[in-house]
Backbone:
């Protein structure tokens, strides 16, 4: 690993200022992804700004919303009794991710900023437009079993690996950020982006803004929810396909619904059109199957990952069935 | 069953182990010196600008390991795992994958199990670290260590320090209420010998025995 300078920030303002001045500076919190990437020489910052001393760890239940500090640990959120009660989908998604040791280290903000696990991104001997812009994409025509079926481009077919983000996208969360020009809010579904011609950009943060918290508006998705994660082993593996399903069912009718997929795109894949289709319908397997078929509109495989075109809709039916029968 | 070793044989074996380890440590030091880039040597000789000299810079670190306070200097890039093994010579904590995938490096920091290979030592100011070496009280092993021996919770033993540290935390966290739950919450510790069944037995036994920390 290339050596670097490390400084400790004592306020979010000083953190933002200390990083804005230097081109090759980065924030570090849990480090579970960044340290790994630095060991592989995928990223090589000159300076790290340690933000772990900042007061951004609180989980607060405010009027109309829940606020989760960017430095709250993944395990802290997943095991918070009030989160389990009010946002069980989020707790389920978090528990489905990584291992308990990593959940103890990883933060909410860091989870959002984790990089793709595409093997071409990690292997510095291979071309990768995300790692080195304009160097090519090894995954297109290469080993692409884990890769995207939605929203990919000729430059990149990588997927965002997070489980937590799939739940947050489904729950209409917002991201609070602070930068040199002040604070602003980003809709969670606008936070991550599609690769287009600039896959080196994972998200819409500007000028090294700092994520300070994530907010989830209050909702009725406390019972009929499920996070289904399909993976190569039963625990501690990234998703081949995952589905976050949240239903508000009254008298067997779907009053409201949220649906998002993970492991299928460069960002958490929210299925708003499918949600509109399901609203007002009576719960049935036929309706869920029709919803799943609708969800696959525009999907395409790249060879090794063609199985996701079948696994995807099956996972949607399964998640909706489990969620609706709770 | 192998004949019990005489005390003399045991002493010889201990001595040869010690000298082997000493040799590795010393030769490791020579390798490090040999690998110092010539530019650094030149930088210090010629008093070049601080950016190049900066590569030699360390940061002060106060850290408590197994109850012993340590005042050290570490390079910013040194992981907690390398600090434990290379600077403090606590080689019980193992380096498996060094990329957060195997759990062999699991230690407790401020009472929580974490992966020391993905933790920068320079970010652990005033932390309290417990490693496998810090579990026993004198010659009395921790109940989890006893249970791993009794239940054959290992074959080659390389993942065992991480498994034991993780197993203790698993119970303390309240995630050892069933075999399924133990399997889920121990999934970050890989055992390529496949001793999982016996590891779950060991953790279950300690849990049912009412482990005292």
Residues:
């Amino acid at each position: 690993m290339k050596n670097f300078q490390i400084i400790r920030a004592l306020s979010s303002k000083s953190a933002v200022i200390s990083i804005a001045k230097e081109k090759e500076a980065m924030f570090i919190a849990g480090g579970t992804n960044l340290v790994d990437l630095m060991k592989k020489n995928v990223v090589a910052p000159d300076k790290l700004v340690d933000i772990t001393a900042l007061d951004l760890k609180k989980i607060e239940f405010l009027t109309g919303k829940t606020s989760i500090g960017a430095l709250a640990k993944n395990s802290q959120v997943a095991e918070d009794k009030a989160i389990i009660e009010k946002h069980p989908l989020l707790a389920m998604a978090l528990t489905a991710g990584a291992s308990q040791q990593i959940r103890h280290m990883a933060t909410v903000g860091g989870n959002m900023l984790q990089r793709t696990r595409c093997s071409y991104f990690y292997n510095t001997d291979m071309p990768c437009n995300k790692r080195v812009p304009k160097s090519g994409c090894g995954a297109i025509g290469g080993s692409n079993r884990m890769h995207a079926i939605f929203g990919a481009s000729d430059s990149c077919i990588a997927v965002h690996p997070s489980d937590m983000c799939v739940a947050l996208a489904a729950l209409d969360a917002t991201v609070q950020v602070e930068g040199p020009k002040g604070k602003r809010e980003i809709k969670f579904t606008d936070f991550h982006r599609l690769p287009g011609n600039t896959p080196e950009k994972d998200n819409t943060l500007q000028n090294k803004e700092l994520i300070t918290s994530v907010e989830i508006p209050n909702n009725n998705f406390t019972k009929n929810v499920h996070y289904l994660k399909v993976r190569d082993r039963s625990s501690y593996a990234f998703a081949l396909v995952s589905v976050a399903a949240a239903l508000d069912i009254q008298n067997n009718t779907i009053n409201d619904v949220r649906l998002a997929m993970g492991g299928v795109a460069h960002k958490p894949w929210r299925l708003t059109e499918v949600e509109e289709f399901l609203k007002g319908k009576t719960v049935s397997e036929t309706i869920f199957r029709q919803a799943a078929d609708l969800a696959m509109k525009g999907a395409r495989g790249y060879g090794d990952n063609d199985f996701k075109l079948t696994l995807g809709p099956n996972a949607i039916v399964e998640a909706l069935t489990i969620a609706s029968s709770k | 069953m192998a004949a019990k070793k005489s005390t003399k044989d045991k002493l010889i074996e201990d001595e040869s182990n010690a000298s082997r380890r000493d040799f590795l440590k010393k030769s490791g030091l020579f390798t490090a010196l040999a690998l110092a880039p010539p530019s650094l040597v030149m930088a210090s000789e010629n008093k070049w600008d601080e950016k190049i000299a900066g590569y030699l810079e360390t940061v002060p670190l106060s850290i408590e390991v197994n109850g012993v306070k340590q005042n050290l200097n570490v390079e910013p890039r040194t992981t907690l795992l390398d600090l434990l093994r290379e600077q403090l010579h606590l080689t019980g904590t193992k380096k498996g994958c060094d990329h957060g995938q195997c759990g062999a490096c699991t230690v407790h920091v401020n009472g929580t199990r974490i992966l020391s290979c993905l933790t920068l030592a320079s970010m652990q100011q005033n932390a309290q670290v417990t490693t496998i070496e810090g579990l026993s009280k004198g010659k009395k092993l921790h109940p989890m260590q006893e249970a791993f021996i009794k239940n054959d919770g290992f074959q080659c033993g390389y993942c065992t320090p991480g498994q034991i540290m993780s197993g203790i935390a698993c119970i303390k966290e309240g995630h050892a209420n069933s075999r399924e739950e133990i399997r889920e919450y121990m999934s970050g510790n890989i055992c390529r010998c496949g001793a999982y069944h016996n590891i779950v037995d060991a953790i279950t036994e300690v849990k049912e025995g009412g482990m005292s920390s």
Q: What stands out?
A: Chain B has a mean pLDDT of 83.
